[in-house]
Design a protein that fits this description.
The complex is a heterodimer of chains A (about 100) and B (about 625). Chain A is an all-alpha fold and about 100 residues long. Chain A is built from three helices and no strands. In chain B, helix 2 runs parallel beside helix 4 and helix 18 packs across helix 23. The chains are: A mainly alpha (about 100), B mainly alpha (about 625).
Chain lengths: ~100, ~625
Amino acid sequence: MHGPDIQWYVILSAILFTTGALGVLLRRNPLIILLSVEIMLNSANLLLIAFSRLHGREDGQVFAISVMAVAASEVVVGLGLIVAMGRRHVELDVDKLRTLRG
Amino acid sequence: MIQGAWACLLLPLAAALAITIAGTRISRRTAAFISTLTAMAAFVEAVIVFAEMWGKSPGDRAGSTTSWTWLSAGPYHFGFTLLVDQLSVMMMLIVSGVGSLIVAYSVGYMDGEDEERRFFAYMSLFLFSMLLLVEGGNLLLLLAGWGMVGLSSYLLIGYYQEREAAVAAAKKAFIMNAFGDATMALALFLLIQHTGRLDYASVFAHSPVGGTVANLIALGLLGGAVAKSAQIPLHTWLPDAMEGPTPVSALIHAATMVTAGVYLIVRCHPLFENAYVIQDLAAGLGAATLLMAGLIALVQMDIKKVIAYSTMSQIGYMFVGAGIGAYPSAMFHLMTHAFFKALLFLASGIAIHALTGEQDIRRMRGVGKLMPFTKWVFLAGSLALVGIFPFAGFFSKDSIISACLQHGTYGAILWLACVIGAFLTGVYAFRLFFIVFTGEPSEFAREHYHAHHGKEGPVSMLWPVGVLAVLSCIGGFLQWAPLWTPLTTWLSPVAAPLVEPTSTQEWTTSAIAIVIGLAGIGVAYLFYGARSIPVPKTWPVLEKKFYWDEIYDFVWYRSSDAIARGLDTFIERPYIAGSISAVSGLAGEGSRELSAAQTGLVRTYVLALASGLAILAFVFLAAR
């Protein structure tokens, strides 16, 4: 087997996940939040593929593809919403969208 | 014989069903004729049954047949049994005979009512129920008929359903009768427990003799009899029941249904003889009722209410007779009473009908001058009621009174009560007669009297009254103790009398009763006929009918009302309603507090998710 050890993949994945989580938590622009969510999803994909390679089995790859499909659909919906917000001249700031508060 | 009994029972039911199903497709007249003709056919069937029975020897006159098992529960089986014996055929003749006369009378009386069809369907239903009551071969069928006559009585009292008083009276009658039905049902439960059967023969053979159980059984049956026959203490419904149409008062509340209590005691006399205390109680209640009702009847101003109280009083006599064991005399009085009381009601109905529904005797005053036929038949009925020779009441009432003398000291007290009652009967019956039918017509009577094609009423109303008047005059000669006693002989296999007064007692009592009755008539004449003595001021206790309604109102209604109000104030509002509002308040407050967590900010949610995940991860990885 070539390439770095499995712990490097885990560390990279953790960094990516933390970056994404921080992005979701700290940024207000829904576009950026959507991007951060994608980063988190892909960190998970990275882990799946890394372990799949480590064990020499294909299940992880199958899961990664499924996650990509789900992520793609999610982006379609999310981007659609954001475009609709832009068309309606709603300010792109999730903190302003508080209609659902209790 | 049995087929005749079935036909007699089912014809009125068929009429009730036919009228109900046909509805508006048949004319009112047709409904009236269906009802009348089936009632008459039922009477013919009863006569046929009687004739067949007449031809047999006294020993095997009774016959019963079980058509099918009606109810079966574990080891108990109750058949749909018809019992035709000397007693039930006598009741069949009275019910269908007087019943068909009264239904025929209703054709004229109810003419022009809006819902004549409903009236005749109810009348046929009543006849069926009453015939079921008297023909039923076991106590369960008797109870079924008992409940159904209560129902039809309720329906007919409340016939004028737009009148509030009629509806209230119907409810009152139904509730008080339901009380009696309940005590009867309890007695039946005891009988099932102790004998396992409900058909008359085995119940009489196996029921306990003496002791608490026998007393309770008899007391339960007596409760039913007292409620149905309007005796103290369950009598207050009968005067109110006069809200129903007059033929209903005549048929149900004078001639047949209210006398069912007497029939019950006579039919179940072995059970009452097993509990002689209760039988004495029945006689005592009858005596108390006959005195009280006689006193109240003295001051009533409504013609039908006077006759209603008179009915209570006469049934009191029958209870005395049944209570001391003079069963044939009680049944004889039941029969003659059916004749003359139906006559009195129907005759007053003619007057009421001709005076556009007026029932107040002060305004009906002197109507006899305008209606001579009604006046004479009413006089015949009144004489029969007071018991003047040779009218029907004389023979039957006197044999009850003289039988009292065979019952020891208690009997002597009953005898005295009955004789005083005879005096009261004379006064109230002839007070009514003198006020309504003698003297100059009042202004109201002159103004409102309208003849029916030159006659006092439609022919369909007059001829039944004529028949009843003839029966009231001569019907008593059926039995004149001690000269001839065919009725006692006839009934002996079923209900042999326990007491046989001597001829001296018969004659003395008859003489005393006639003198007392005539004295009553004389008193009534002085006050109301000649009007030579001013009528004394009446006691309020009589006008208030001995305060029974007020007492019941206080004891049952007001007390439960007060308890309910107390519970409402002290339990319902603070604890039950209070606890519910406390729970809802708590939930509302709590969710208002919790909703603060729902900020609407995406980042808070994400933070919550992320920290939750972190905690889970910590728990699973580090803290394992």
